[in-house]
Amino acid sequence: MLSNELCSPMRILLAEDDPCSQELMLRMLKNMGLHADVANNGLEVLRNLETRSYDVILMDIQMPKMDGLEATRAIRRRCHDRSIKIIDEDYR
């Protein structure tokens, strides 16, 4: 028998301001059997983290109001254990 931890779905937050990119990423995640909440900017990411915990944040770098790098720094200041995995889209 599997433990509850193995059976529970991964909690994913997609931080992306572009509607087309949001749709594409959500569709890709759905094809993998996953679901994600969506934040349109870094401030929304921080607000979401006040009410829910996430295993992974897929973070866009360039967003309005607060960019992904600033949001990541704010998250790291608040979560010193680094339990949240943040994956940014800047592969260069």
List the topology elements:
Blueprint: H1 4-7, E1 12-15, H2 19-31, E2 36-39, H3 42-51, E3 56-59, H4 68-78, E4 85-88
Parallel strand pairs: 1-2, 1-3, 3-4
Description:
- It is a single chain.
- With 92 residues, the chain is of the alpha/beta class.
- The chain has one domain (11-88): Rossmann fold (3-Layer(aba) Sandwich), CATH 3.40.50.
- The protein has 4 helices and 4 strands; from the N terminus they run αβαβαβαβ.
- The chain has helices at residues 4-7, 19-31, 42-51, 68-78, and strands spanning 12-15, 36-39, 56-59, 85-88.
- It has a 4-stranded parallel β-sheet with strand order 2-1-3-4.
- α2 links the parallel β1 (12-15) and β2.
- α3 packs parallel to α4.
- The protein is globular.
- The termini are far apart.
- 18% of the residues are buried.
Structure in a nutshell:
By secondary structure, the chain is of the alpha/beta class. It has helices at residues 4-7, 19-31, 42-51, 68-78, and strands at residues 12-15, 36-39, 56-59, 85-88.
Provide keyphrases for this structure.
about 90 residues; alpha/beta; four-stranded parallel β-sheet; 4 helices; 4 strands; about 40% helix
Per DSSP E runs of 2 or more residues, the count of β-strands stands at: 4
- Helices, by number, come to 4
CATH architecture designation: 3-Layer(aba) Sandwich
Along the chain, the helix and strand elements come as HEHEHEHE
Give the overall silhouette: globular
The biggest sheet amounts to: 4 strands, parallel
Structural class: alpha/beta
Kindly report how far apart the N and C termini lie: 43 Å
Give the count of structural domains: 1
- Strand proportion, as a percent range, falls in 15-25%
> What radius of gyration results from the CA coordinates?
13 Å
Describe the strand arrangement of the main beta sheet, using strand numbers: 2-1-3-4
Uncertain runs with pLDDT below 50, 5 residues or more?
Answer: 1-7
CATH class descriptor name: Alpha Beta
Which fold name is given in CATH as the topology?
Rossmann fold
The helical percent reads 40-55%
- CATH homologous superfamily - what is it? Response regulator
- Compute the average pLDDT: 86
